[in-house]
Amino acid sequence: MNIIYLHGFQSSSNSIKGQQLKQYCAQYRPNDVVHLPDLNMHPQHALDLLFTQITNLSDVVLVGSSLGGFYATQLVAKHGIPAVLINPAMRPWHLFRTLFATTTLPYAVTADWSLDEAQLDHLEHISVPFVQDASKILVLLQQGDEVLDYREAQRYYSEASQGAMLMIDCHGSHAMDDFADKIPAVLQFLSDSIK
């Protein structure tokens, strides 16, 4: 499998979870390759980059965290590829407007990229109104997520006639600190879904 890890907002290709996934595959699943693109750019550019990777690789699956989970949801709808979502952001445009308010937008994320109102409008515009290909999605949620209300994702991914598979932990955090323990189950789900 070619596993593309989609990091969250204000993270990077050096994301802890992405590195854990890469190290696990290197040690236990050498035929699986983990790709860690840097997605710190305009959302459409990030999706264009991911589209290029998806079309140039075979047996592609996605693992997306937070904003990366939002991107992965859009890509599953468009390309029908399997994905595991880690505390996915459901309405990132709303979240960022709440966090930063209009007084701090544009918000400098990196030296090369600032998030602005037009990009938030774009995120809202590209959002799929209901989950598609839900059977190809595993959603990992933690009730202790201090950034996102896990119930919003729980509702969204359960609404389809055949809802996505959900694993909901009591407590936890937005970072999902125990992700390393979940990697075997994540890879099994992705491997089963790509067949």
Automatic annotation (TrEMBL):
It comes from the Bacteria. Pfam families: UPF0227. Coiled coil: none annotated. This is Esterase. It comes from Acinetobacter cumulans.
